[in-house]
């Protein structure tokens, strides 16, 4: 676009224009002017997208980006070194750590020779220990750091020769462009930009700079000429089994683009005290120079060791400061905290167990200016006893999918997976009242016709089991928080909070705020006070998160909705399905759904307790219809049960109490008051629908609402759309028992009513039709 003004693409015309303001309709795409040589994509041009300030140099031949040799940038743009020099945090020497006359500088230099205290050393192993023994001794249980000697030579890595010294490394890769840092885009959009230098220029920088926080090469983008680096090394045999490699979808939870690195660092570079992400362990093999490590056990308080919480260590200031400010004290006292001190030398591989704190400092050899190492995060099977409880707490959807995938694809899964949690027997019938109870039915034993005839038409609650494995795409990993954040995190959603803690006064329990989805999910992941009462409630996927519909199926039992079969659109045409994400303890208070709409919910992860009252007993719950409204509101269930409100017949109201478990699908008939409490963090999808069984009552409510609105209002449109169709009540009333995979539908087949007219077997599945089996998946 260059310097042209913004313009709308592929959408309707702007609705109006004012001075400096353009109002755009839904679906309008906007193209903003940015410099034509800037790119924020690691994938663009096969991943080589250098920051415009630093054109990538030639490495042998031009790499995949087409960048030529390093030259003075055209058009007056600054060079990469000029860009790097403009970042204040990395260009100060407040503590003069490069000045040999300073005590702090001398202390840092001495770490290359200072041997760890005997009580703070870890076990050093010869390269020959079996993977099984290594896992038992160092990965399992609390984990133990270890140093393995001689991996590059023993496993014949080309890096053992090519990376053995700074000069050997530069002879082969000196003109290879590598990432020195990332910069946020000036225009505020997209990903950060790579700032690259050829390796020989970085080494020259490392040897000449005098700043306290020099740049450190963490190269993770192995495309173009950088692919050659991956030919020089591979995972050591003792930690080669990485469960995150089980499937490509599981791999995306901890992508190698973020957790496989070649590291080149000069003096005063390293990492602040931190733990590795996603409960991963790691290995780090040094080929050139020395590296100092300090590690602490998982349960060590961060404040005791100068650590930062979460990802804050990345912005925690110069890593060398930690070694000046904290290492001397901890060397003297660290044995009490279980401190492990390692001086890593060329050929050494350090193993870092999951959850262990660690900090590093690069110490180039005399006459050299950098260290060279490779590292990768892994999830060894023996660490699962530690990992799984934390994974389930942080991302229950992914944890469930992860375990199911391991059981399906790894024959040895029983050897390392914790035993199945005892399954609580789920009763086939819930409720003691003959006229108001709930049945649990297996999908492959419940026909579409029986569901409609015996449950929906008769207004009986139902739970269907067995649809869970077919409701989500494999890519979504059970709608994991990580996946939702990565793909839909910037979408804004309404977040409700209903606090139950006594410190919140009555009348102030509920509030709503607009958050990015990733912000709300981060609150749930942390599980702190900010997560209390958090509920993303009834978010329309077609209207707010349409991209998610590609990854979610809908239960076919409820896909015959009349609202989808009208000829003209109306305000409910794209309302469902909806998404619910709730924190433990959040709840939907006692209510009844509008216009006697039937309701279904599929439980993706977590557990919900449902209290459902008989529709004919709603009058016993002290309902009140607010002025100008058509639907009742109810007191809280707690007030009804305590007698705080007058409801003489409340004890006679028929009710069902049931816990909806992962993978189950619930049907609640229209007009039934219900209360829902999230017993754990939960994710669910749901929908309301109208069919022949509630059509008359729904139309009566809709017409009454239309009468109160202005002519041509939205409810009048719904009434007109429904009233002009002669629906066929028995269409698609199939008696056949079908495999569960035939009992879910895509949104595109639900929208517009296509699925409502199918035969027993969905279109395109005829050749795959087979009788259902008891273990259908």
UniProtKB/TrEMBL annotation:
Disordered: annotated segments? 32-85, 756-777
Biased amino acid composition, Acidic residues: 764-777
Its recorded name reads JmjC domain-containing protein
InterPro entries on file: Cupin_8, JmjC_dom, JMJD6_ArgDemeth/LysHydrox
Q: Which SUPFAM superfamilies match?
A: Clavaminate synthase-like
The organism's taxonomic lineage, starting at the top: Eukaryota, Sar, Alveolata, Dinophyceae, Gonyaulacales
| Span of domain JmjC | 236-395, 530-706
Q: Which domain of life is it from?
A: Eukaryota
């Amino acid at each position: 676009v260059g310097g042209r003004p913004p313009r709308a693409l592929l959408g309707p015309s702007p609705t109006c224009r004012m001075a400096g303001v353009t109002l755009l309709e839904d679906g309008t795409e906007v193209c903003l002017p940015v410099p034509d040589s800037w790119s924020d994509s690691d994938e663009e041009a096969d991943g080589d997208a250098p920051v415009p300030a630093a054109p990538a140099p030639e490495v042998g031949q031009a790499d995949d980006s087409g960048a030529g040799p390093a030259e003075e940038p055209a058009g007056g743009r600054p060079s990469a070194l000029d860009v790097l020099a403009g970042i204040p945090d990395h260009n100060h020497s407040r503590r003069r750590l490069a000045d040999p006359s300073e005590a702090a500088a001398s202390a840092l230099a001495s770490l290359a020779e200072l041997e760890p205290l005997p009580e703070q050393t870890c076990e050093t192993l010869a390269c020959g220990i079996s993977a099984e023994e290594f896992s038992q001794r160092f990965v399992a249980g609390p984990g133990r750091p270890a140093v393995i000697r001689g991996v590059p030579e023993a496993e014949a890595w080309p890096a053992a020769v090519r990376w053995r010294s700074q000069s050997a490394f530069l002879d082969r890769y000196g003109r290879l462009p590598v990432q020195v840092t990332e910069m946020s885009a000036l225009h505020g959009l997209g990903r950060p930009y790579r700032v690259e230098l050829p390796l020989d220029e970085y080494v020259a920088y490392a040897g000449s700079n005098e700043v306290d926080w020099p740049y450190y090469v963490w190269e993770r983008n192995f495309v173009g000429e950088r692919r050659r680096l991956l030919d020089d090394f591979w995972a050591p045999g003792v930690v080669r089994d990485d469960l995150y490699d089980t499937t490509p979808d599981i791999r995306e939870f901890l992508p190698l683009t973020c957790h496989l690195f070649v590291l080149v660092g000069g003096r005063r570079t390293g990492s602040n005290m931190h733990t590795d992400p996603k409960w991963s362990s790691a290995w780090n093999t040094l080929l050139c120079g020395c590296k100092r490590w300090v590690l602490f056990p998982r349960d060590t308080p961060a404040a005791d060791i100068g650590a930062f919480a979460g990802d804050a260590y990345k912005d925690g200031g110069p890593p060398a400061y930690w070694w000046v400010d904290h290492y001397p004290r901890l060397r003297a006292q660290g044995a009490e905290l279980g401190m492990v001190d390692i001086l890593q030398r060329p050929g050494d591989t350090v193993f870092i167990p999951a959850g262990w704190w660690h900090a590093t400092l690069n110490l180039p050899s005399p006459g050299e200016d950098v260290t060279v190492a490779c590292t990768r995060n892994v999830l060894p099977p023996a660490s699962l006893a530690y990992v799984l409880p934390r994974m389930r707490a942080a991302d229950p959807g992914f944890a469930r999918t992860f375990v199911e995938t391991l059981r399906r694809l790894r024959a040895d899964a029983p050897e390392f997976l914790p035993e199945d949690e005892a399954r609580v027997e789920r009763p086939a019938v819930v409720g003691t009242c003959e006229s108001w109870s709930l049945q649990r039915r297996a999908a492959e034993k419940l026909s579409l016709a029986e569901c409609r005839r015996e449950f929906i038409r008769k207004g009986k609650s139902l739970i269907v089991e067995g649809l869970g494995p077919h409701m989500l795409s494999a890519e979504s990993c059970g709608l994991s928080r990580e996946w939702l954040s990565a793909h839909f995190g910037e979408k804004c959603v309404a977040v409700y909070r209903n606090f139950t803690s006594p410190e919140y006064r009555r009348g102030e329990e509920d509030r709503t705020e607009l958050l990015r989805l990733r912000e709300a999910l981060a609150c749930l992941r942390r599980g702190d006070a900010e997560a209390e009462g958090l509920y993303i409630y009834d978010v329309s996927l077609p209207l707010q998160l349409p991209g998610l519909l590609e990854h979610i199926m809908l239960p076919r039992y409820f896909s015959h909705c009349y609202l989808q079969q009208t000829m003209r659109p109306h305000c409910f045409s794209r309302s469902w399905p909806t998404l619910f994400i709730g924190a433990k303890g959040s709840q939907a208070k006692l209510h009844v759904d509008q216009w006697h709409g039937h309701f279904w919910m599929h439980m993706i992860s977590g557990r919900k307790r449902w209290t459902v009252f008989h529709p004919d007993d709603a009058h016993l719950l002290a309902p009140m219809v607010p002025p100008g409204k058509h639907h009742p509101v109810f007191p809280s269930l707690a007030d009804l049960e305590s007698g705080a409100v007058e409801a003489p017949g409340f004890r006679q109201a028929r009710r069902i109490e049931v816990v909806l478990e992962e993978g189950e699908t619930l049907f609640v008939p229209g007009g039934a008051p219900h209360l829902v409490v999230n017993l754990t963090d939960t994710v669910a999808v749901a929908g309301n629908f109208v069919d022949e069984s509630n059509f008359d009552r729904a139309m009566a409510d809709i017409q009454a609402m239309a009468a109160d609105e202005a002519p041509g209002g939205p409810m009048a449109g719904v009434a007109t759309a429904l009233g002009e169709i002669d629906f066929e009540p028995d269409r698609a009333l199939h008696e056949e028992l079908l495999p569960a995979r035939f009992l879910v539908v895509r949104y595109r087949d639900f929208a517009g009513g296509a699925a409502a007219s199918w035969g027993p077997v969905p279109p395109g599945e005829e050749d795959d039709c087979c009788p259902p089996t008891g273990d259908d998946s």
